[in-house]
Amino acid sequence: MTGGSGRRYNARTPHGGSAAVQSPLYRHVISQITQKLESGEWRSGETIPSEPRLAQQFHVSVGTIRKAIDELVAGQILVRHQGRGTFVSTHSEDHYRYHFFHIVDADGTKRFPAVELHAFRRGRADGSEAAKLGLKRGAPVIRVVNLLRLDDDPVVLDRITIAAQQFPGLTRAIFVARPGTIYHLYQERYGVSVIRAVERLRAVTADGATGKALGVRAGDPLLEIERVAYTYRDRPVELRVSQVNTGHHAYLSELGKGA
Amino acid sequence: MTGGSGRRYNARTPHGGSAAVQSPLYRHVISQITQKLESGEWRSGETIPSEPRLAQQFHVSVGTIRKAIDELVAGQILVRHQGRGTFVSTHSEDHYRYHFFHIVDADGTKRFPAVELHAFRRGRADGSEAAKLGLKRGAPVIRVVNLLRLDDDPVVLDRITIAAQQFPGLTRAIFVARPGTIYHLYQERYGVSVIRAVERLRAVTADGATGKALGVRAGDPLLEIERVAYTYRDRPVELRVSQVNTGHHAYLSELGKGA
DNA sequence: AAGTGGTCTAGACCACCAT
DNA sequence: TGGTGGTCTAGACCACTTA
């Protein structure tokens, strides 16, 4: 044959055919790859099969495989390395660490924070937590409070809520002893990869306890960030409410250029 | 010939050839297209030549043209419409209007604000403005203050600074009479297309005047957004400091999924 | 019916990495 | 040296819009 391929469209709708032309082939490939990631068949940090091999497995051309991988790379799910292969993104990579941390100091530099655990408790989801995490009210949850320091200054107080069922056996000791970021822990120990998050920002006033932790007076303004983090297929993983002292730092948001 | 094309690499470095392989062809195409946009040869809202025509003009294959356009579409610079053509993005399109407006109400819905002009004055750039707009201190600027209402409630107070030279003949009347958004005005009347912006968010306390405009008490917390908006080649266009009453609204930020 | 973008294929060569 | 991704080409057919 010479090159055309319209037949592929029909190859997937052989019977009846009255149905619409559905999604293009590369969407199907994306879905298949996502499933392998979801199921843990391909794990974070590992290389996935080469493009020619995938083309064989999925019975499509290399060009179609490339188009599918292109999208997953754009979404930070995969990373390509010329000459080495294509890898499943890891939260231990620098570019990914910063992807979910948006606090910068006065001159715009991002520094990575030192984390200090203030609390680790088990409890039951209230109405708001349940709604945002897709749980039933009263479902068992783990709540964590972390203080983040930048250059020794306390800047962020995180209140984290996760579903206990999704992280069986998680203890304070495990949480404290983790080598990297929290998302790296979710990923390495529980196979839960945070790939997306939605944040809502508001200005609030510090209450006594929070103010004390962040070294500001009660009533001083703080930036509050409510984040819901998601894994594949938009499944919610974590609810995190951060309060930020923006006296010497700011939240950086870039619009456009791949945003 | 059958298909290969490595020669192209050399075709662009015919003499000496000791130089590195420079950028790929599609980068060069992106640059050429960007220049046509920058110079105003292709204006916003207009269609650009078809892909086969561009391939001829630039002496590359359609595939290479497509790859270049792919990137510009991802960056919201161009918009494709199957069957109609490829168009230069306009700030009058809905998807673009919301691209630079991130305030949502309690249930997460974006509504477009009603704008009320509070001030329009000419002045000279102070040190901070000059630095952020790439001007010399004391350069002539225009300063605008706008109040944005959502469902009749005053929610955002914008203080805008632009270089007077870039917007010759701009008057209060023109500013008020514009049909669409401010960025649409920049684009339509002055050929200046805002395509990217960087925002820094902080929590501050309302001063008397701002509080009055937003219907809050002096000392209440407000979300302050400092935005620098850029056009092609990262040239700064506008400095905008917004103060937001986040009592019933929030700033929405999405991380991941093309961010 | 003609023209445009959208999808898919097949194959070439280049650049980079590991061995 | 062999394998991997990166670039580029050429050409087919599909889907959509406009006239």
Q: Helical residue percent of chain A?
A: 25-40%
From the 3D structure, determine the CATH topology of the largest domain in chain A.
Answer: Chorismate lyase
Give the CATH architecture of the largest domain in chain A: 3-Layer(aba) Sandwich
Would you tell me the structural class of the helices and strands of chain A?
Answer: alpha+beta
Distance between the termini of chain A: 41 Å
Biggest pleated sheet of chain A: 6 strands, antiparallel
How many domains of chain A? The number is 2
Taken from the alpha-carbon principal axes, the silhouette of chain A is globular
Strand order of the largest sheet of chain A: 5-6-7-10-9-8
Considering the protein shown, what is the CATH homologous superfamily of the largest domain in chain A?
Chorismate lyase-like
- Beta-strand content of chain A: 25-35%
Mean pLDDT across residues of chain A = 90
What is the radius of gyration of chain A computed over CA atoms, rounded to a whole number of angstroms? 22 Å
The CATH C-level class name of the largest domain in chain A: Alpha Beta
Oligomer: homodimer
Secondary-structure element order of chain A, N to C: HHEHHEEHEEHEEHHEHEEE
Number of helices of chain A: 9
Number of strands of chain A: 11
Low-confidence stretches of chain A: 1-20
Give the largest interface.
A-B, 38 and 38 residues
Task: Describe the structure in your own words.
Two copies of one chain form a homodimer. Chain A is α+β, with helices and mostly antiparallel strands. The first copy, chain A, has two domains: 7-88, Arc Repressor Mutant, subunit A (Orthogonal Bundle); 94-251, 3-Layer(aba) Sandwich (Chorismate lyase), CATH 3.40.1410.10. In chain A, 29% of the residues lie in helices and 32% in strands. The first copy, chain A, is built from nine helices and eleven strands. The first copy, chain A, has helices at 7-11, 25-39, 51-58, 62-74, 94-97, 127-133, 172-177, 182-190, 208-214, and strands at 47-48, 78-81, 85-88, 103-105, 114-124, 140-150, 153-163, 196-205, 221-231, 235-244, 249-255. In chain A, the strands form three sheets. The first copy, chain A, has a six-stranded antiparallel β-sheet with strand order 5-6-7-10-9-8. Chain A has a three-stranded antiparallel β-sheet with strand order 1-3-2. The longest helix of chain A has 15 residues, at 25-39. The first copy, chain A, is globular and about 65 Å long. The two termini of chain A are 41 Å apart. The model of chain A is unreliable at 1-20 (pLDDT under 50). The A-B interface holds A 74-76, 99-100, 102, 104, 108, 195-205, 219-224, 226, 244, 246, 250-259 and B 74-76, 99-100, 102, 104, 108, 195-205, 219-224, 226, 244, 246, 250-259. The structure holds a DNA duplex (19 and 19 nucleotides).
